[in-house]
Design goal:
0% strand, 74 residues, mainly alpha
Length: 74
Protein backbone atom coordinates (compact mmCIF):
# COMPACT_ATOMS: atom_id res chain seq x y z
CA UNK A 1 0.00 0.00 0.00
CA UNK A 2 2.69 2.48 0.98
CA UNK A 3 4.68 1.74 -2.18
CA UNK A 4 1.75 2.76 -4.38
CA UNK A 5 1.50 6.08 -2.56
CA UNK A 6 5.17 6.96 -2.98
CA UNK A 7 5.51 5.83 -6.60
CA UNK A 8 3.92 8.97 -8.14
CA UNK A 9 6.00 11.18 -5.85
CA UNK A 10 9.28 9.53 -6.83
CA UNK A 11 8.25 9.39 -10.46
CA UNK A 12 7.61 13.15 -10.37
CA UNK A 13 11.04 13.74 -8.84
CA UNK A 14 12.63 11.53 -11.50
CA UNK A 15 10.86 13.39 -14.33
CA UNK A 16 11.91 16.77 -12.91
CA UNK A 17 15.51 15.60 -12.53
CA UNK A 18 15.62 14.25 -16.08
CA UNK A 19 14.14 17.50 -17.40
CA UNK A 20 16.85 19.50 -15.65
CA UNK A 21 19.52 17.13 -16.95
CA UNK A 22 18.28 17.55 -20.52
CA UNK A 23 18.20 21.35 -20.15
CA UNK A 24 21.74 21.36 -18.74
CA UNK A 25 22.94 19.20 -21.65
CA UNK A 26 21.30 21.47 -24.25
CA UNK A 27 22.78 24.56 -22.54
CA UNK A 28 26.22 22.91 -22.57
CA UNK A 29 25.93 22.12 -26.30
CA UNK A 30 24.82 25.69 -27.08
CA UNK A 31 27.76 27.18 -25.19
CA UNK A 32 30.15 24.77 -26.95
CA UNK A 33 28.76 25.84 -30.34
CA UNK A 34 29.00 29.52 -29.35
CA UNK A 35 32.61 29.05 -28.29
CA UNK A 36 33.51 27.31 -31.55
CA UNK A 37 31.96 30.10 -33.65
CA UNK A 38 33.12 33.08 -31.55
CA UNK A 39 36.06 35.19 -32.67
CA UNK A 40 38.60 35.45 -29.85
CA UNK A 41 41.57 37.81 -29.73
CA UNK A 42 43.83 34.79 -29.54
CA UNK A 43 43.31 31.28 -30.95
CA UNK A 44 44.72 29.83 -27.74
CA UNK A 45 41.81 31.37 -25.81
CA UNK A 46 39.35 29.50 -28.02
CA UNK A 47 41.20 26.20 -27.54
CA UNK A 48 41.37 26.71 -23.78
CA UNK A 49 37.66 27.50 -23.53
CA UNK A 50 36.70 24.50 -25.68
CA UNK A 51 38.80 22.23 -23.44
CA UNK A 52 37.27 23.79 -20.31
CA UNK A 53 33.77 23.30 -21.69
CA UNK A 54 34.48 19.74 -22.78
CA UNK A 55 35.96 18.71 -19.44
CA UNK A 56 33.65 20.49 -17.00
CA UNK A 57 30.26 20.05 -18.64
CA UNK A 58 27.40 22.29 -17.55
CA UNK A 59 29.45 23.96 -14.80
CA UNK A 60 31.99 25.10 -17.38
CA UNK A 61 29.10 26.22 -19.59
CA UNK A 62 27.80 28.42 -16.76
CA UNK A 63 31.26 29.89 -16.22
CA UNK A 64 31.64 30.51 -19.98
CA UNK A 65 28.21 32.14 -20.12
CA UNK A 66 28.92 34.62 -17.34
CA UNK A 67 32.56 35.33 -18.24
CA UNK A 68 32.51 35.41 -22.06
CA UNK A 69 29.00 35.34 -23.51
CA UNK A 70 27.33 37.86 -21.20
CA UNK A 71 29.97 40.12 -19.67
CA UNK A 72 28.93 43.05 -17.51
CA UNK A 73 29.34 46.27 -19.52
CA UNK A 74 29.64 48.81 -16.66
Amino acid sequence: MIETLFFPFFMGIWIAFMGLAILAFVFWILMLIDCAKRKFKNDNDKIIWIVVLALTGWIGALIYYFVIKKPNKH
